[in-house]
Amino acid sequence: MKIFALLLSLSLLVFTHEMGHLGFAKLFHTRVRRFYLFFNPGFSIFKARKFGGKWHFLFFNANEPDEWKEENLSEADRNNTLWGIGWLPLGGYCDIAGMIDETKGPDDLESTPQPWEYRSKPAWQRLCIVSGGVLVNFVTALIIYTGIFAHWGKDELPLRNASLGYAYHEMLKDEGFVDGDVIYAIDGNEVYDFVEAQQRLTLDNPRQVTVRRGDSLLTLDLSGQLMQRIVELNSKDLVLMAPRMPFVVKDYVTGSPAKRAGLLPGDSLVAIDGQPMPVATDIIAALGAAAGDSLTIGFVRQGQRHDVRMAIPSDGKIGVQLVTSLADLFEVHHIDYTILQAIPAGISYGWHTLTSYVSSLRVLFAPGGTQALGGFGTLGSLFPNEWDWHSFWSITAFLAVILAFMNVIPIPGLDGGHIVFTLWEIVTRRKPSERFLTVAQNVGMILLIALLVLANGNDLWRWLRSL
User: Fold this and answer.
1) CA dihedral 400, 405, 407, 412 (to 10 degrees)
2) Which of 329, 310, 160 minimizes the C-alpha distance to 247?
3) Do residues 243 and 330 lie in contact, with contact meaning Cβ atoms separated by under 8 Å?
4) Containing domain of residue 291, as a range?
5) What local confidence, expressed as pLDDT, does residue 66 receive?
6) Does residue 455 register a pLDDT over 60?
């Protein structure tokens, strides 16, 4: 399911990205020879082209028939793009006539620049064409976020609404945090939202955190090494803090001892053998320690406290499913949006996501930061094991933001490289030579391949370490 979700998400984003290039190219009457989803070394799964007034299709094709070849088409039909789906799902491409990119070099261009070629267009039009993919990816993210808010609304867990406080990673406990603490301020600035607190701990490398512990407010002086320790830990599943959950029965499993003892869905376990124990993880540990024995379990039902004696099976489990939804356990702030309200909310959230992602890249410049890079395995791990439309669209929007930013980085071979060269031409009124663009393109592709190998190599290394 993760693989399917990743392929579907990336296919949508690659398609919209390349459509951004194609849209501006068509707007400025620039010929687009081929538009491909996925790469097609050797053969294509699907091809479609309109010529002679009709659409023609090919399936699992390696060599195009003569009548499909551009030199045999009429001048009008040559303006029609060949659409295709390749078999290698690592991206896609938009073959724009007269443009030096990953698909061709100077030797592949017409000997004389043609008016319908990219290289013959004014610099500002070429800038629009090369920027189109990045622009459309970011706009796609904003549209998806807008749709999410309009359809599902938004749930927020105010930090202080987690009545049992939070459980913290050992890394934070080394910094002075204690399970049950509730964060009030980071570096002197009050924090109200659970998600914001996690992001600031991860990205801002804070030096002071104010927490509520019991009835007191305490200020913790941190080491200033939190970001470096996060990088060194090198875990894609790192959770710095999580709300401590009560043990509330949702349902039974087959042969449930809890059902036989009289526990009902909605009951909340709060004590073991008379010892108060409101946190689910503590109760689970106590049940495991008493495997094969009997315990008196205290629970609350409709506001009334009760006790029941229960024999604990040898596996330490009492056969119940727990309520895990934050909205069912705590006072979660839910916001519904009309479509007109969702538009500015989606734009604001998309911009916040972009700035947060850019800030997170500082981790790469910490010692050992390149170990934090991840490839397709890391991307696939973002998706849940079971299909969920809300998760799919949320992750797809996030990936759209990543794709937009990564493509604007000024590396030859990426859109950002073309953008920089075009801006240089606009400022200096001097156009880079085709030979220079070819060399830059080759250097950029080497860098991109090295980055791809490093990122996916990190994924492979993490997998081997987990065996």
Assistant:
1) -170
2) 329
3) yes
4) 247-323
5) 86
6) yes
